[in-house]
Amino acid sequence: MNNEDIVLYDVKGGVATITLNRPPVHAFNLELMKGLYHRLEQADKDERAKCILLKSSGMHVFSAGIDIKSKNMDEDPEYFEELKKYGRLNNQLIVTMLKPVIVQVQGSAIGYGMELVLAADLRIFADRPREEMFFRMPEIALSIYPQTGATILPLLALGYPVAKNVLFTSDEFGLEELKNLNIPTRIFPLSELEVNTKKFMRTFSKRMDSFMYLIKSTLNIMNKKLIERCFDLEDECGREAYKKKSQAEWRDFIQDLYQRYL
Question: Right CATH number for 3-205 from 3.40.190.10, 3.30.70.100, 3.40.1180.10, 3.90.226.10?
């Protein structure tokens, strides 16, 4: 599979469709991470596109998150630093770019895959039970500090108490829980997901582009400092998370964070 095939790109009817295409589970290695970033940049600058649809190929998994098995983290730390860099760039671009991003979720989204779902402006889900489609932020259970937006995106999308629950427990949850949080924009039967998403996108893309751009930008400007500082704060915490400190040292470090970031 060449670089063009790993993230597909198409524009039709004012909609730029970006498709993750690293089957079977669309796990993010560096190639897929960089490919997504370049496609997002391409779509945001594409004069033919008024909005963006992010999806993945296949019927079972939206994305299993970062591919931690592809390389040894201790043997190749530079690779994972680059992976984290582009992971943050992707999520920050989705949140702050001019054009609205709609995500189509046909299957489970885990870790970084779930971050992409939370970063999007609108979310369309297949109507599937938890045993067929679940969501999870497993970083802490895997002894990996959550980065690339894994703290700020649940906070923005799910709210403070739910973000704590999702991040601390690493529990699986399903579509019903997301419905209770008003996260889905639309829910369609799996067999009708593609056709109904296309109908939704056709209707959405007919909205005045100035309205779409200004509404998103107004909300982002209101939260710009929060968004940027939260990504920076998460990066700084990630750099410290694996260090050995006493409770007193952690208390001093965190007190310094309060003074600098509040």
Answer: 3.90.226.10
**DSSP per-residue codes, 101-113:** EEEEE-SEEETHH
Strand partners, 53: 17, 102
Domains of the chain, by residue range, sit at 3-205
Q: What is the pTM of this model?
A: 0.93
Return d(Cα 184, Cα 139) in angstroms, integer: 24
Burial class (CB in 10 A: 0-12, 13-18, 19+), 106: buried
Three-state DSSP class for residue 7: strand
- Three-state secondary structure call for residue 245: coil
Side-chain half-sphere exposure of 129, counting CA atoms within 13 A: 1
Structural tokens at position 188: 């369609």
- 28-39: per-residue pLDDT in tens? 999 999 999 999
Nearest Cα residue to 117 out of 129, 130, 134, 131:
134
Number of residues that make up the chain: 262
Predicted confidence (pLDDT) at residue 1 exceeds the cutoff of 60:
no
Closest CA to 32 of 60, 76, 70, 73: 70
Looking at the DSSP bridge assignments, the partners of residue 123 are 103
Residue 71 DSSP code? S
